[in-house]
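cron nightly-structures :: item 1 of 1
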Amino acid sequence: MSAHAVGTAVDDAVQQQRAADGGASAAGPCVVTQDGDTRVRSVVISHIQGEVGFDRGKGRGMEPAIQSVPVIQGMKLITADGYAEVGFEDGTYLRLTPSTVIAFDQLGLHKTGALATVVGVRLGTVYVVTRDWKGSGIRLQMGKTCITVSRSTHVRLEITPARIELAVFKGTASVEGPAGHIVEVKKSQSLPFHLSEGGMATIVPGIEVRPSDDWEKKAMKLHEPHVSRRPPPSVWH
């Protein structure tokens, strides 16, 4: 399936879900704005392998993704049979496996210098690696659920028609459900979601291995030697 076809199918599903939720806000539960926010960010598509497309939300529809293209708020990134990686200025990396759809729901900069990063994961599998720097972190949202990935954390989030599961390889991630219930998932733990019941299951020890985990390990080894030991000025607090 092409990136355009994947994106169209997911858009239809998202619209149906919003209708079922009574017109839930497109911003999502993770987005937090403050007075004085700007969108001055330095986020790029850092790696592409195979067929990957993006939609800037400017009315031009799907375009072939190009490495080093700047990422802006509102952009969608869609992999068909390919892989993609997004690099953030604080050293965070987000990687997408084939048939994955994400949207950059918030790429902001608070006047304090703190980064505001929210990525909506619509479908597929993503890996996130954050750095051990104050201010480093990212929030993932799916529907009315918000996942806060803390600094120095490595997670995998899978969303398929049959299953949704968060796995934490390192660090911690906080999951807040629609009812406000918060669960903290720690290193070497997984949190499955009950799709039929619309809620989270109990945390389970251990992480099931996925075929894409080998690709993720190779990507990490490739980037680790090139990651600066110091964070950029915007996250020096």
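cron nightly-structures :: done
The two ends are 45 Å apart (CA to CA).
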